[in-house]
# Entry
Amino acid sequence: MQRRRFIRQLSSSIGAAALAGSAPAIIVRNTLAQTRRNSLGFAFVGLGNYATRLASNLADAEHCHIAGVVTGTPAKEKTWAEQYNIPDANIYNYENYDSIANNDDIDIVYVVLPNSMHMEYVIRAAEAGKHVICEKPMALNTDQCARMIAACENNNVKLSIGYRCQFHPVHQEIIRIGQNKEMGATKVIQADFGFRIGNPNQWRLKKELAGGGALYDVGVYCIQAARYATGEEPVSVSAQEIKTDPVKFNEVDETILWQMKFASGAIASCSTSYSSNFNRFYAAMEGGWTRIDSAYGYGGQTGTTSKGAIEAPENNMWAAQMDDFSLCVQEDRKSRVSGEEGLHDVRVLDAIYESIATEKPVDLI
Amino acid sequence: MQRRRFIRQLSSSIGAAALAGSAPAIIVRNTLAQTRRNSLGFAFVGLGNYATRLASNLADAEHCHIAGVVTGTPAKEKTWAEQYNIPDANIYNYENYDSIANNDDIDIVYVVLPNSMHMEYVIRAAEAGKHVICEKPMALNTDQCARMIAACENNNVKLSIGYRCQFHPVHQEIIRIGQNKEMGATKVIQADFGFRIGNPNQWRLKKELAGGGALYDVGVYCIQAARYATGEEPVSVSAQEIKTDPVKFNEVDETILWQMKFASGAIASCSTSYSSNFNRFYAAMEGGWTRIDSAYGYGGQTGTTSKGAIEAPENNMWAAQMDDFSLCVQEDRKSRVSGEEGLHDVRVLDAIYESIATEKPVDLI
# Structure
């Protein structure tokens, strides 16, 4: 409890600092460099499957392009260099990563490493004067999140979390309807995302690398969705865990249910799993409902409301996400998926684990 | 706690008595009367909207027919008598109800009264030697359920609870797949049923008549569904309540979420509401999933599994339910939706309210 209060104070003082900091015009070398061109250069840190997906979608972006990579695997250097025409000078490893500071081709670093490495590589990017996108979940706890936010502020770089759903037109419509109360106040949200995880040797199942299991990996989408659909922070969280395969999931959580109460009277019922497939968002409002089937996946989002289908064009949510951050950098705006957004979600993650441990609701006021 | 233990003992001794009782052939006057014809006579007790629905659907039944009514509203006597060609001798009020014992036209009494009246009218039916169907929820607490079961056993009449969903082909397919483990063990169930209640003056919103709110009225369908889809009893229940309209819902619950853990490792996430519309069943199994949209309503059940649509014929679930009970009576079989089924659900209802009050999980072992 002592620790959570400290984090709350830290979090709110960071919020205040961020607000104060956005007022004066901040002139730093990167901002100057970036205004010289319309397309900003991205370097991906950690070249796993998701980085591959990000890089291939970046081709659809208008305001940014791939400019470099950071990898601990020499074999990947050549593959990526050839595929994306990356000069040798823009290829880094984890040792010389900090010298990226001297590379004007690279404006933004996108950290796609295992969760436990997020904090270090975001802070090193910030200290190298690079703007940063960090994959979700932001970090292993709110202390780490707060340190990452502070490092970016101290180095006058922008920070964003890789929440691609907020750049999907169907989710944007759910946000618009929910936050504008177009169908009245939200009453009940059901947000569920789970999948059957494959390879038992992957980093996602190692606590030291992943920090947590299904909840960290995909449950965080449901926390996000409940928060952005209501525009509110939860005031109380309760949670339950169940494990059916203690061998495969000996280090991380397999299946977790949790519930979030909001001050407005909205309540969210959520579930996540590494051993079950489900993927859905539903919001019941006073005057109707919204729903997304295949809500949080890499495609196939189908939006419906009580008035009919959501007619949203399919877009490239990854390109939209990276474009938006590039424009935030160029226009000196805060990202809608800021470090504070990441911290709020991690705060809920912490509360969920605390509620499981104590078998009691955890207040977040 | 003391009280729950008592009920558990009572419940299990009743179960044992029921098993012991089913072995010898029981010959009572009604059983003899019933074997004289193929179609058994129903009398409905309480002629509200749902009784009207039951009676009109009874026309599709093969093994039963409407034979009488019991009502406290004289105006309804004439309407029903004319519509269903019911002789004066088969029309009862709440005072002369017990004399139904002398009426051989009536084999089965269907109690469709407000929840708080279930126990009295089921016991009076049993004591009149009539078989009984009682609407859900069975009663206000497990003590009442146990007394109803005992009264039916003591009077050698059969008892069934009005769980129509178990007679719907889509639910039957969900039961078959789940209990046969056709897609492997069930991991996660999501069962949600809520609706926006209208008229603020109806008995459903009066604690004295209804006993509880949304949970009693429609949440009980979700408890049922999780139990029959797994074929298991929950071993632990946790629950959360939220109220956004304390005027309309000053006597009963508005919105409740609850979670049920099963010994197999399955877990169910459920929600119910009188102020939100949702109506869905979902089960994630090791090797696939099943889903029903519009799961618990009066029609429109759409079943899907990971293998495709459930091709189940639309049937008349009410006629099927009443036909099945008529055959149970004629063939001296226990109903699949027995009093014990009703008691098990009420036991979970009790645990849900206890968990809300104590803010702790409630063990049901």
